[in-house]
Amino acid sequence: MAAKELMSTAKYYLTTPIYYVNAAPHIGHAYTTIAAETIARLKRMEGYEVVLTTGTDEHGTKVERAARAQGKTPEEFVDLISNEFRTQWQKLDLQIDRFERTTAPSHAKLVNALFEACRAKGYIYKGTYTGLYAVVSESFVNDAKPGDLDPETGKPYEEVTEENYFFKLSAFTHRLLEFYDAHPDFIQPEIRRNEVLAFVKQGLSDLSITRTSIKWGIPVEADPSHVFYVWFDALTTYVSAVEDEDRWPADLHLIGKEILRFHAVYWPAFLMAAGWELPKRVFAHGWLLFENDKMSKSRGNIVRPTPIAETMGVDALRYFLLREIVFGQDGSFSFDALVGRYNSDLANGLGNLASRTLNMIQQYFDGRCPEAPGDKAVARTAEEIRSAVAQAYEKFDFSKALERIWTLIATVDKFIVERAPWKLAKSQEEADRERLRETIFTAAEALRIVCVLVFPVLPHSAANILGQLGATSANLRFGDALWGGASLGRIGTITAVFPRLDLKPTIQKMQELEEIEKNRQAALMGKPVEAGVVAMAAAGESKSDIISIDDFSKVDLRVGEVKSAEPVKGADKLLHLKIDIGEAEPRTIVAGIALKYKPEELIGRKVVIVANLQPRKLRGLTSEGMIVAASLEGGLPVLTGFHEDVPVGARLK
Q: By CB neighbour count within 10 A (0-12 exposed, 13-18 middle, 19+ buried), where does 184 fall?
């Protein structure tokens, strides 16, 4: 790190994906952007002059259709959604240096310049293409057959025939493989590099880069009946955002793994063809899962970042995403884990150390940190951890870096307990007074170093604690994390940085805000507001049938599999079911569904049952729960089911 800190005039340029405006921003977008902004802070602390670019990709079929559905022009629609992204990053207090839109006139000129550079070297030709097209990903699906369903929409792929300009991607199979071999760190992590190598080694096919069937896009200046295909357009944004700034090539493209092929295969091939410089590194992180399921609009399990930030603070969200998930791998998000991690690490860990250290300075030394060399063992540990943290940050291993920082917190906590400064403060012996000064200085200096090391991840909280310590957070460098690297003066007003949070009310508040935010965004996208929020809004008018979230949480809904089903003698509406819900023995349930379902139809079917009802007798049989079904007009029930495989015993929330 120290060598890099000398590079005060060196530039570092990194990018997030250019986010598509077919959806409002959610926690997946925030995950990538927070990680990129953390890296930008890291590089500034190394002495680099950093520029972070993000932006919005605003062309294509989906945008045209979405605008039409809202009765808006495409321009009106993209202005609205692009501003939503910009506003979200402002609410999360993310320091974005360039926000580039693909509708910018300067961007259109650069896309045409890339096209002409590739064509001049013989890598672009005109042809006709017929194929099955996935609207969500805006790409032709080469291995699909007529009638195949798009997994994103559940609808058949669309067959499209049109005149296109093609890029000779097939000419770059060997050039790309040679490039990957010469630049082994170009694609990271290693598992993603291996995926790309396997894909390219199969041989590459030429790529359609223009469309004639739509009009909402950047026109090809030499042939205006064509507009550029979204990826040839969008990827060029990374260059147009810093045109004439002497920043290209990018040091880092930070992306999600689902768009790796476009960034690690198509993009470098376009640039090679044009004779332009290639980016230095592409890092593809994993998916953010919601309770182990991939977040997606179709599953309805999208989480928004602002309700979390409003309830727990921006830094709590930043910490959870970068500590809980090994960067590069898939990771799971849940509200329970979020609050649990906050309380264990932030409230009980860093927050507690800050509070006790500041209060001891106030109580024992009238608010001014004493001067002392500090404990040599703690100082040595702090230096070892500083070095380990620097190495972890360099690899974007945020989780490991934070784990090491919290090791230092634990070391200082133990040191304070062993030194027992509350006992030393009662002694009149000079040796004990000196030992007290050393103890308090050691705790304060270690806390200061913790704040410097954690600053890229927790910029607001670290600055707050440093301010209370009488130190500054302005222009921090990693060199400031050396023992004795800064003097501490009179402490400021002591305030709790991470007050402990009660689990249930905190989650309830986030869920309520999430519901409001989800429907605000739905209205923004021209989608209907869900009935649940309408009911919330009308709660003041009629509360007779309203239950609290605590009441609902008492209902234990489980996924079960029907193991056996037979009629109940003398009852034409009842079936006697044995249902496996993951317990030692299947549950016996008597259900009034016999008029709708034959027993043999139910064997092996996944159903939902209420598992914590008091057992009751029906026709001499004990029913240990209730099966969940909808009642239609006419009285026939319809069982609740699932479109996707769900494990037996899973709880519904």
A: exposed
